[in-house]
Design a protein that fits this description.
The complex is a heterodimer.
Chain A lengths: L8 E5 L4 E6 L8 E7 L6 E6 L4 E2 L4 E4 L5 E6 L8 E8 L14 E6 L1
Parallel strand pairs in A: 1-9
Antiparallel strand pairs in A: 2-7, 3-4, 3-8, 5-6, 6-7, 8-9
Chain B lengths: L4 E3 L2 E4 L5 E6 L6 E7 L6 E7 L2 E5 L6 E5 L5 E5 L8 E8 L9 E2 L3 E5 L1
Parallel strand pairs in B: 2-11
Antiparallel strand pairs in B: 1-3, 3-8, 4-5, 4-9, 5-6, 7-8, 9-10, 9-11
The chains are: A mainly beta, B mainly beta.
């Protein structure tokens, strides 16, 4: 499985933008980049995904490097409710790659 | 529309017993994934079912097994329970089995093995 590497933790002040990085140097051409987050005592929830182009939705933006070996999840204005563990994962287009292996993610702390 | 539902919410067993966990996917979703999340750790992939068949399996011993029923609901069985099986077991469903399909997770079943 292609693996992803993320910092263990990050901190942000409320109302400030947050950039969460992810390295995936072994990504294959058909792998989608997915981001999920897990709030305390809850199951993970989908945040955003992309293939090659940058993506925006109501929750966040995803910036994908031109070589696709890294990506950045952008929360434009962090709130206390955004404090969670953020997972960057690769989802392939073949059966074996659909394990969707999660790493340990980045724990985001948001302070007033 | 109902999300992914899992039962039971909590389950307490003793070593050597068997545990059965259940998952109902979102209506229309044919793919079901099972994950194990030990306390403070990331999600470890267990099993993936699609259209009633096991499509992939993680690095877990054979005592972890499951099945998917014709209505796409799924069951995870853990035989000969060991203390280290204590964890949150998460089920997710997807409309698409691979690639761009996003996963929708349930709230999980917390298994405690004494």
């Amino acid at each position: 499985d292609a693996k992803t590497t993320q910092p263990n933790s990050m901190e942000s002040n409320e109302e400030e933008p947050v950039h969460l990085p992810c390295n995936h140097s072994t990504i294959s051409g058909t792998d989608y980049i997915h981001w999920y987050r897990q709030l305390p005592s809850q199951g993970p929830e989908y945040v955003i995904h992309g293939l090659t182009s940058n993506v925006n939705n109501r929750m966040a933006s995803l910036a994908i490097a031109e070589d696709r070996k890294s990506s950045t999840l952008i929360l434009h204005r962090a709130t206390l409710r955004d404090a969670a563990v953020y997972y960057c994962i690769l989802r392939g287009y073949t059966g074996t790659a659909s394990k969707l292996t999660f790493g340990t993610g980045t724990r985001l702390q948001v302070t007033l | 529309e109902a999300g992914v539902t899992q039962s039971p919410t909590h389950l307490i067993k003793t070593r050597g017993q068997q545990a059965t966990l259940r998952c109902s996917p979102i209506s229309g979703h044919t793919s079901v994934y099972w994950y194990q999340q030990a306390l403070g750790l990331g999600l470890q992939f267990l099993l993936w079912y699609d259209e009633g068949e096991e499509r992939n399996r993680g690095n877990f011993p054979p005592r972890f097994s499951g099945r998917q029923f014709p209505n796409y609901s799924s069951e995870l069985n853990v035989n000969a329970l060991e203390l280290e099986d204590s964890a949150l077991y998460l089920c997710a469903s997807s409309l698409v089995g691979q690639g761009s399909g996003e996963l929708f997770f349930g709230e999980g079943s917390r298994l405690t093995v004494l």
